[in-house]
Amino acid sequence: TEIEYIGVGQDHTDFKHNTTIGAGYLDYRYNIGKFNARAGLRYEYSRLSAKFKDGSSPDFGSSLNDWVPNASLMYNFNDASTLKLSYATRINRPGINFLNPAETYSPTSLSYGNPDLESVHYSTFSLNYSLIKQKFNLDATLSYSFADNSITSLTTVDENDFMTSTFDNIGEDRNWDLSLFGQWSVTPITTLMLNGSVYYQELKIPDVSNRRWGASCYFRAIQILPWKLRLEGFLYFDS
Question: Most buried among 31, 54, 86, 189, using CB within 10 Å?
Answer without folding.
Answer: 86
